[in-house]
């Protein structure tokens, strides 16, 4: 009985000394278990030895309630820290939401393209794709730092990159689509790069100085990316029978996601009025013209079916994002707060 | 008494880890040096958004100035105005060539698809008869070329404007 009694405060103390809230919860459970064990032994000894004591079992019940209450509060706290409610997205201010969207497109596509590292079809393409991924992740870093700053909730750029749940990512569905073959990767990149050139070119004139600076910087790199992906679309489309067929299959599979690049809602409206955001409706015809030009050179065509699919901007993702995040977030989830 | 001129001089010893022949001053990533009561603030700018050398450059600057006896150095990164290859110093261009990397020709690669790439002079034999192997090279800032005359492959520090 003494051992059980000692075990209650010891477990609480040991748990609180752990570096992980999850461990703490586990130790609190053990403290509660020990109190039940003690209660049983207490009741048994009362019966066996015909002992008379005052209100020890009641005291134990109060203790159990207190530990339970403490455990619940701690648990709630933890689930809020590690899994913020979806409404926290809504609470973010317009500028943070807008910046995060641009950041998420760069981050998720950057991660996708980086999966080619060491797997490129030829050495030059391995290097090219890895360089493009590096640029995208570099853009994401600048954008996430700015999003964290304007959010003003004390989160860092790393918190935003690695500690959000799937529903809190606002990248377009296009960027999270799996790499597929080289043709599919190139077609995805081409649709995105072509959009990004016009987008950054317009965002350079944003009244928000930092977004304008990031756009200015990113535009120069994105021009190289667009040239790379556009030339490849033409080579593949106007290449061999097989390369044509694969590139066409990629367009047929991905075209439905292109529409979402031009998604706008009240966040955009608010910021367009302030001269901060880009009116995507204005750049859409420019994008379409460039896409059509490359398509005609490549002998490829758009699918007849105009069905579009969206949801990413509002946190409704395809099944692919979860798998991507599992890998991308692995290190931070396993060793929270680690740095090197 | 330490002056800003001294600091500029010392920063000549901090090299770009990816092109070790260039100092951060040659490269044009150091925008300005401010000295106030023995504490230095160095303003730097990245060449490319994803340049992995920035952190090493930052710690290189800090340790160099600490070694020279400055009690505190802060390094601030700014994005605007964006870095272009025009920030590369004349001295930097000369060093690049001697090192075997073709310095940027003053012409951005045309955005016209399949346009003839910029004529780049071979850093070894100076021939104009070179070909681009890939727009993307060993680092973000370089493209991969080959000389058709001396047959040597070489890096081209691509023009960014």
Task: Explain what the structure shows.
The complex is a heterodimer of chains A (340) and B (161). Chain A has 340 residues and is an all-alpha fold. In chain A, helix 10 packs antiparallel against helix 11. The relative contact order of chain A is 0.09. Chain A is 73% helix and 0% strand. Chain B folds into two domains: 4-83, Fe-S cluster assembly (FSCA) (GMP Synthetase, Chain A, domain 3, 2-Layer Sandwich), CATH 3.30.300; 100-157, no CATH class. A four-stranded mixed sheet of chain B has the order 6-9-8-7. Chain B has a three-stranded mixed sheet with strand order 3-4-5. The mean pLDDT of chain B is 90. The chains are: A mainly alpha (340), B alpha/beta (161). Chains A and B meet through helix 6 and helix 10 of A and loops of B.
For the structure shown, list the relevant keywords:
heterodimer, A: 340 residues, mainly alpha, de novo design (two linked rop proteins), Ferritin, 2 domains, 15 helices, B: 161 residues, alpha/beta, GMP Synthetase, Chain A, domain 3, 3-stranded mixed β-sheet, 4 helices, 27% strand
Assembly level: heterodimer
Low-confidence segments of chain A: 82-90
User: Separation of termini of chain B?
Assistant: 39 Å
Write down the overall mean pLDDT of chain A.
90
Q: What's the CATH class of the largest domain in chain A, please?
A: Mainly Alpha
Lateral strand order in the biggest sheet of chain B: 6-9-8-7
Number of strands of chain B: 9
Give the proportion of residues in helices of chain A. over 70%
Gross CATH architecture of the largest domain in chain A: Up-down Bundle
Q: Summarize the main sheet of chain B.
A: 4 strands, mixed
The largest sheet of chain A, given as strand count, sense and whether it forms a barrel, is: none
Kindly report the CATH topology of the largest domain in chain B.
GMP Synthetase, Chain A, domain 3
Terminal CA distance of chain A reads: 47 Å
Strand content bin of chain A: under 5%
Helical stretch count of chain B? 4
Helix content of chain B: 10-25%
Mean pLDDT of chain B: 90
């Amino acid at each position: 009985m003494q051992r059980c009694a000692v075990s209650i405060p010891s477990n609480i103390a040991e748990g609180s000394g752990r570096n992980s809230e999850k461990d703490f919860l586990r130790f609190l459970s053990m403290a509660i278990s020990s109190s039940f064990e003690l209660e049983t032994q207490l009741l048994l000894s009362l019966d066996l030895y015909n002992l008379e004591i005052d209100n020890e079992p009641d005291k134990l019940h109060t203790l159990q309630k207190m530990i339970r209450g403490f455990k619940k509060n701690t648990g709630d706290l933890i689930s809020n820290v590690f899994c913020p409610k979806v409404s926290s997205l809504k609470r973010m201010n317009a500028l943070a939401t807008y910046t995060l969207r641009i950041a998420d497109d760069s981050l998720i596509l950057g991660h996708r393209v980086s999966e080619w590292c060491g797997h490129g079809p030829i050495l030059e393409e391995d290097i090219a794709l890895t360089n493009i991924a590096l640029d995208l992740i570099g853009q994401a870093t600048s954008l996430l730092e700015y999003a964290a700053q304007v959010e003003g909730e004390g989160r860092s750029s790393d918190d935003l990159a690695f500690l959000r749940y799937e529903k809190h990512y606002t990248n377009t569905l296009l960027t999270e689509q799996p790499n597929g073959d080289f043709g599919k990767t190139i077609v995805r990149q081409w649709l995105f790069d072509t959009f990004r050139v016009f987008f950054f070119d317009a965002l350079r004139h944003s009244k928000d100085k930092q977004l304008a600076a990031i756009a200015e910087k990113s535009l120069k790199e994105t021009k190289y990316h667009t040239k790379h992906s556009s030339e490849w679309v033409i080579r593949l489309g106007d290449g061999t029978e097989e390369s044509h067929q694969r590139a066409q299959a990629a367009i047929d599979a991905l075209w439905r996601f292109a529409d979402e690049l031009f998604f706008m809602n009240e966040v955009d409206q608010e910021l367009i009025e302030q001269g901060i955001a880009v009116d995507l409706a204005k750049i859409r015809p420019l994008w379409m013209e460039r896409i059509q030009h490359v398509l005609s050179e490549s002998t490829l065509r758009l699918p007849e079916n105009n069905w579009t699919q969206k949801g990413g901007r509002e946190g409704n993702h395809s099944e692919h994002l979860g798998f991507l995040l599992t890998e991308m977030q692995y290190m931070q989830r396993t060793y929270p707060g680690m740095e090197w | 008494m330490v002056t800003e001129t001294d600091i500029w001089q010392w920063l000549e010893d901090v090299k770009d880890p990816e092109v070790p022949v260039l100092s951060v001053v040659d490269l044009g990533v150091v925008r300005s040096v401010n000295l106030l009561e023995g504490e230095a603030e160095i303003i730097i700018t990245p060449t490319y958004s994803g340049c992995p050398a920035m952190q090493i450059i930052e710690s290189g600057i800090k340790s160099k100035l600490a070694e020279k006896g400055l009690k505190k150095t802060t390094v601030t990164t700014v994005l605007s105005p964006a870095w272009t290859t025009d920030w590369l110093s004349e001295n930097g261009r000369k060093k690049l060539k001697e090192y075997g990397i073709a310095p940027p020709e003053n012409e951005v690669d045309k955005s016209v698809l399949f346009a003839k790439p910029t004529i780049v002079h071979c850093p070894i034999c100076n021939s104009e008869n070179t070909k681009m192997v890939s727009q993307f090279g060993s680092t973000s800032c370089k493209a991969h070329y080959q000389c058709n005359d001396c047959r040597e492959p070489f890096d081209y520090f691509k023009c960014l404007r």
